[in-house]
Amino acid sequence: MERLTRLACIQSVVLLPASWALAPPPAQAVVLSAGPLAAAGPAPAAGSTDAQAAGRASAPVAVPEPDEKATRYHRSGNVLWVVDVLWGVAVPALFLFTGFSARLRGWAQRLGRKWFFVVALYFVFWSLVSYLLDWPLAYYAGFVRQHDYGLSNQTFAKWFSDSLKGLAVGLVGGVIFLWVPYLLLAKSPRRWWLYTGLAAVPFLVFLLLVSPIWIEPLFNDFGPMKDKQLESQILALASRAGIEGSRVFEVRKSVDTKEVNAYVSGLGDTKRIVLWDTIIAKLDRSPLLFVMGHEMGHYVLGHTLQGIVFAAALILLGLYVIHRTAGGLIARWRARFGFGELADVASLPLLSLFFGVFFLLFAPLALAFSRHLEHEADRFGLELTRDNHAAATAFVALQHENLGYPRPSLLYKLWRSSHPPLGERIDFCNSYRPWEHGEPLKYGDLFRDH
Question: If pLDDT is split at 50, 70 and 90, which confidence band does 262 have?
């Protein structure tokens, strides 16, 4: 389920995976610490004037060259990505061409008897086998590699527990919702793709609504902000950004990671601002408030709704491609597959395979859309705080602490980068100063002056 969910939600690029985090999760979560912030610019000398300090604060922040460790992390990550893509094709192909998917369906029919229970049992069997097949790669990528590069605090027990919880959440979600497309396939073979795509919209809205209150707390402890002064500053910034009734939560992520992050999540009454305890401990106030301004920008600019619409459109297009092409493939290989129509639940690995290839081909489009939203959130945060130095040094700190690679290749940007490269973000923070030249702000009319 974990792999299928990632594909069906456009590899979590557009659909706000940790809602709108400043940097891509999980391996590139925001890491902003006080140490690199100090290294990014010289500290004021004793006896220096306010004008001198202001001059240093307005000076451009240089984009650091990546060190040897960051370069190895970047290159090994590229290799791991290729392996993951190939594995994502190999596993469903193995299910199909060995006839194992049809055998799973046969077992589900003998045990479930009724159609709904057959679909549910097949999904459970398929998910458990897929989880076991994916486990070694997931263990290396999510636990071993993160520890090898000094990015994780997580014990194996915590990692394994979270892995099982993720599996359980996927199983519950699949059992509840998977019957919908298969019912539509059976009842409306010519229009199932349209109805399923439309049904994806309320499903995505529901997911965004319940995730902050039902899913995220399964993995970490959420509570009120301990630093009430900081909470007051964040709420004041939110009020100036036009976000009223915001709630700020502190999550204990230090048990998992040495990285830091902050994000906004939820919809309507479940919307909230979430800060990891690591970011509160390590980040100075000014960079932290810029990070908050960036996250608030996602809400104010309507990126949540835009993400839902874009994701639904891409899913709809993917379903239509499957509708037009799957029949011929099934007709050719039906003896090997063990099923003769897409409405057979044994076709689930085929759907997974199609979505994997489809979203790989359309990844440049989806990622470009995501980068555009992130860039505009950066602009919003800069206009809200007008603190270029804090913003730029925050991204420098991200590069230092999270082994970031500031200027990756074009291929990396097209197929892997959901956020603008760090070098581009630092350059933008250095150069974007319309208020200093009397130019209008793009989002100035959205701010409330108090």
Answer: confident
Q: CA-to-CA distance for 149 and 20, rounded, in angstroms? A: 25
> Residue-wise over 27-46: b if at least 16 C-beta within 10 A, else e?
bbbbbbbeebbeebbeeeee
Cα Rg of the chain (Å, integer):
24
Quote the CA–CA distance of 207 and 176 in Å, as a whole number: 12
Joined tokens for residue 431: 């150069």
Asked whether the bond before 42 is cis by omega within 30 degrees of 0, the reply is no
- Look at residue 49 and tell me whether its pLDDT is greater than 90: no
Asked if 225 and 248 count as a contact pair (C-beta separation under 8 A), the reply is yes
Q: Point out the residues that are catalytic.
A: 295
What is the tens place of the pLDDT at every residue in 77-115?
Answer: 999 999 999 999 999 999 999 999 999 999 999 999 899
Burial of 136 (0-12, 13-18, 19+ CB in 10 A): exposed
Section 35-41 average pLDDT = 32
Name the residue among 260, 251, 263 with its Cα closest to residue 223: 251
Measured distance CA(308)–CA(204) in Å, rounded: 7
Q: Among all chains, which residue has been given the structure tokens 């995730």?
A: 211
Sheet holding 272-276, edge to edge: 20-21, 262-265, 272-276, 248-251, 222-224
Residue given tokens 């996602």 in the structure block: 298
Phi and psi angles of residue 24, each rounded to the nearest 5 degrees, phi first: -65, 135
User: Nearest-CA neighbor of 345 among 136, 199, 186, 147?
Assistant: 186
Q: Half-sphere exposure of 42 toward its Cβ, with a 13 Å CA cutoff?
A: 10
Q: In this predicted structure, what is the pLDDT of residue 50? A: 46
Per-residue model confidence as pLDDT tens digits over 152-173: 999 999 999 999 999 999 999 9
Rounded Cα gap, residues 151 and 31, in angstroms: 10
Range of weakest confidence among 226-230, 246-250, 408-412: 246-250
pLDDT of 55 above 70: no
